[in-house]
Amino acid sequence: MTTAPHTRSAVPPVAVPAPASRPAAPLLDVRGLTISYGTGRGTLRAVSDVGFSILPGEVMGLVGESGSGKSTVAMAVLDLLGEGGRVESGEILFRGTDLRRLAPAERRALRGDSIAAVFQDPFTSLNPALTVGRQIAEPLIRHKRLTPRQAAVRVEELLGEVGIRDPRRVAAAYPHELSGGMQQRALIATALGCEPGLLILDEPTTALDVTVEARIIDLLAKLCDSHHLSALFVSHNLGIVNRICQSVTVLYGGVVVETGPTGRVLSRPAHPYTKGLIAALPRITAERRARLPSIPGTVAKLSGPPAACVFAPRCPFAEETCRSHPQEMRAEGDGTGVRCWKADALATTSWPDEGGTAPRRGALPARSAPLVEVEHLRKIYGASTSILPWLRRAGTVAVDDVSFTIDRGEVLGVVGESGSGKSTIGRALLALTEPSAGTVLFDGADFPQQVRRGDQTLRRRAQLVFQNSAASLNPRKTVGQAMERPLVLAGRGDAEERRRTVAGLLTRVGLPAAYADRYPHELSGGERQRVNIARALATDPEFVVCDEAVSALDVSVQANILNLLAGLRDEMGLSYLFITHDIAVVAHIADRVLVVYGGTICEEGPVGRVLRPPYHPYTEALLSAVPRLAEDGSEPPRILLEDSALPPGGRGGCAFAGRCPRKLGAVCDEQAPPVRETDQGHRIACHIPLATLAERAPVFPKLAGGDAAAR
Amino acid sequence: MLAYTLTRLLYLALVLVVMSVLIFLVTQAMPGDVASMIAGQFASPEVVQAISVKLGLDQPLIVQYGRWAAGILHGDLGRSLVLEQPIAPILMEALARSLVLAVVALTVVAVAGIGLGVLAAVRRGKLTDQMVSGISYLGIAVPDFFWAIVLVLVFGSYMKLLPTGGYTPVAEGVLPWAAHLVLPVVTLVLMLLARIARLTRSSMIDVLQTNYVKFARAKGMPESVVILRHALKNALLPTITVLAIDFGLILGGVVVIETIFSYPGMGRLLLFAIQRHDLPLIQATILVVSAAYCLANLVADLLYAFVNPKIRHGMRTA
Ligand code: SF4
Ligand code: SF4
Questions:
Q1: How far is B295 from chain A (nearest CA, A)?
Q2: A108 vs B contacts (CB less than 8 Å)
Q3: What membrane topology is annotated for this entry (chain B) (predicted)?
Q4: Distance CA B278, CA A368 (A)
Q5: Which pick of A48, B119, B191, B237 has the fewest CB atoms within 10 Å?
């Protein structure tokens, strides 16, 4: 394509593309953008005086947590703010023209043509009633005036370009017939169709599995490079930003707090908020810390221009000046800017670390009888034995012959992607779903059988905290009422006593006791998740299943909740089954890990062992897909997995065979892989001999090597 | 899709068999027996007995049912006692008239109701929306016969523009035929329009908030394409179902409206049969009405599946 005077190195992206002899004019230049939303309770300031610019061929990350206004900015560029949203002031210059001065029809003509977008959730971004090909063709027909036949040819080219091997079939398919990764590729193909100058990527991989995400990010990086595309990359994920963006703008509370080249911002953050954000990230390479540094408090909502530093209420370095003066953006060299007057003074100060790096406590209690014992667990969904032959179904195997144990006080992590059966395992452990085969023993008693007999005593000793903190609380009940319910069910105490218990539980999870009278919508996401945890603790359980319990939370809040869970474990000796797709979170909190794929256990063992070779091929791919920051060491060669086509499992061979990059051949399809033990309960299920597996280089070479065996 | 259709047809047949048994038993339990009705009020018990034997009414119920059901399967619905004619042609005629009413009324309802619903959704919160909502409430709150009476009074009695009731076959001229249809159709439309408009409005509002609509806009599609191609197709799913069920309802006869306008459709036929205690006619009419209703439901489900590729394809692999 173009021979730009700069080259893009995907790993690690260092600096803004070096300008040619004279500095290139920015492709997108946003100045003083202020956006507010009219709500029932008055107007809320979503974005205040935001400015940044993107050079031709540059990918800029717009980073922030929920409420930072990052998506609002992206939508304002597209003129898709939606109901109530209004740009109050500012300029959005695209190729030198202020988009705000254009008529709506002119802006629409730009959309999908020279400014194209890809949004977060591929599963809902495609129209279920139209074929994929037709949807990709639409902008081509509209903007480029192609005939439907010409467009169809171009659609197949585009699908080929985004790495779809069977473009004709995919073009004719309806969205639900495609996997999430393929759907996102189709959306990217749509965006590329009219050869746009600027891509707006709003969390384009957030809804995808890690291994799929890695491939989509690589694809995007490659496309931006080959097409000389500029992109506004909206994300909450610093690792992803590190992988694809040359520069970063950090938003907090609708205000730009820091901007600069990615490498500098992520390795030497200048603004306290950026420091906190990076420190709070659970990391695989970091020394295992008892607690994560966290950012206390939540984002305040603004109704007018900020009167003080927006971050002051949560900043550990805040002083009186910070609270009385709004902060100006201070420009420094190489495109860097910081909105903090203390930035220089704090240059060498890092975010306060509350937990230290000491191991969390002594060795696990001496191995007595395990608390939970699972043997040959199987769960098949949707099997049906109808009298009508065409209605008979074999069902899908969600969990296939899984056995493991959990000791008292132990945290067992379960890592896997969607469809791995990890949630089903958790539900089976709590007797929330009837196993199709196998046994689940809780403290020696057959849990599902007891529940079948109507005996609920074990239910009190084993509780669940799951992902969607909003959906799991009844909006019409106060926090106190919601928390009392398990106590009432268990017949504990009178009303007065229960109120005291609720207050005690709220204090224990770090909330004021007065929260008992609040309704869920009055709480932030992190607070709601604390309430959920408090409710789970109401019956003094010994065992808690955390099913993606921190996945929906912002990094700073996630660190808070992880610390809370770790604290409760230490104080009360709780055991957890910690289910997540995020291997970094597991590396932080778990003692042992199960890596699951297609309903089977690929690898299990102490965390320190699983993170080091020998790896199961799936674990290795998973680890290599984890986005990382510069200080975690350079990215390893990524192991790219095919987008999964068929639901795995239940066919006799290795569940991973359909996507395995190291597949040996027919033996993998036909014979269940042998389970081989390396040492200390580290087991790998694969046909490849352990010695061969051990030859691979570690994915995280910086992982402290010595204590591996000790854990 | 084929397997799905097959399954549904099988269920339909099953439902109809059960229905026929129920209809048969219920009508048997109705007061008065056929034989004495045929024989007349003053006939001697012997005569009644003779008629009973001749009609097979002295046989066990199961045999009687069997004979009735076998007749139906051969297209023989029996004879009307009061009209003293075979039932099938009478029924078919009434059904055809109800069909005309249903097709005309529902076409109007579909076009106007969906149009208004879309308009209200697109202009949500604005004056147009409030007007549509207001009229909808009126349409739902006011009972259907009220409109019928108002219309008869205004257009028929005062202005004398339209016939207030009755029916003339098409053969006697298209204009008089159409004139007789106007008032019942308008009443039906007023009765059904509000629900369709409101349903379309609410599902349209939901769909307009989906990501794929947002993405269509991000592709630079003009609003007309966004609304018609992207939103409406998905928003219509629930509306289609309700329309099909309404169709079944009208086909089965809307007694109130048919009575007020003396429109000789299924509703009036059933009423006539019940008033005159014409058991075979009652049985046949109810059976046909139920079949029409079930069929309309089936068509609704099939349409739903057909419009929704997720179901269409799911069925293929099932
Ligand atoms: S201005 Fe003050 S409160 Fe704001 S980030 Fe800097 S040090 Fe913290
Ligand atoms: S058994 Fe075969 S397919 Fe499965 S992980 Fe090992 S090499 Fe890959």
A1: 21
A2: 217, 220, 222
A3: Multi-pass membrane protein
A4: 83
A5: B237
The token pair that represents A392 in the structure block: 């008979």
B313 touches chain A (CB under 8 A): yes
Mark out the alpha helices in A131-250 (DSSP H runs): 132-143, 148-161, 167-172, 180-192, 210-226, 238-244
Residues of A in CB contact (< 8 Å) with B are 78, 80, 108-113, 116-117, 119-121, 124-130, 138-139, 142-143, 174, 176-177, 187, 190, 200, 388, 390-391, 393
Q: How confident is the model at residue A99 (pLDDT cuts 50, 70, 90)?
A: very high
* Ligand 2 site, residue A685, Cβ cutoff 6 A: no
Q: Is the CB of A46 under 6 A from ligand 2?
A: no
* DSSP, residue by residue, A595-626: EEETTEEEEEEEHHHHTSSS--HHHHHHHHHS
| Any ligand 1 atom below 6 A from CB of A117 | no
Q: Taking all residues of chain B, what is their mean pLDDT, rounded to a whole number?
A: 83
Give me the DSSP letters along B141-177.
Answer: HS-HHHHHHHHIIIIIIIS--S-SS----GGG-HHHH
User: Nearest CB to A176: which of B7, B234, B310?
Assistant: B310
Is any atom of ligand 1 closer than 6 Å to the C-beta of A315? Answer: yes
Which residue puts its alpha carbon closest to atom 1 of ligand 2?
Answer: A686
Three-state secondary structure call for residue A27 = coil
- Which residues neighbour A504 within 8 Å (Cβ) at sequence distance 6 or greater? A513
Query: Which residue has 């003053």 as its token pair?
Result: B42
Question: Looking at chain A, which residue has its C-alpha nearest residue B125?
Answer: A83
Q: How far is B224 from chain A (nearest CA, A)?
A: 13
Euclidean distance between CA atoms A255 and A278, whole angstroms: 18
Task: Chain A: give the shortest CA distance to residue B24, in Å.
Answer: 29
Residues of chain A above pLDDT 70, percent = 89
* Residue A322 clears pLDDT 70, i.e. is over it: yes
Q: Which ligand is nearest to the CA of A686?
A: 2
| Averaged pLDDT for residues A135-147 | 94
CB atoms A174 and B310 under 8 Å: yes
Closest CA to A240 of A616, A584, A580: A584
Distance CA(A290)–CA(A170), nearest Å, equals 48
A124-136: pLDDT as tens digits? 899 998 999 999 9
Residues A53/A216, Cβ–Cβ less than 8 Å: no
Q: According to the model, what pLDDT value does residue B215 have?
A: 93
**Is 90 exceeded by the pLDDT of residue A142?**
yes
Asked if residue B212 has pLDDT above 90, the reply is yes
| Domains, chain B | 92-317 (1.10.3720.10)
**pLDDT tens digits, A379-413:** 888 777 666 666 667 777 888 889 999 998 899 99
- Residue A613 pLDDT more than 90? no
Amino acid identity, position B269 = L
Full 3-state SS string of A486-517: HHHHCCCCCHHHHHHHHHHHHHHCCCCHHHHH
Kindly report, residue by residue over A540-580, the tens digit of the pLDDT. 889 999 988 888 778 878 888 888 888 888 888 889 999 99
Pick from A568, A282, A210, A293: nearest CA to A411 = A568
B219 in contact with chain A, both atoms CB, cutoff 8 A:
yes
Q: Is A464 helix (H, G, I), strand (E, B) or coil?
A: strand
Task: Inspect the interface and report whether the beta carbons of B216 and A127 lie closer than 8 Å.
Answer: yes
Three-class SS string for A288-301?
CCCCCCCCCCCCCC
Query: A124, B211: Cβ pair inside 8 Å?
Result: yes
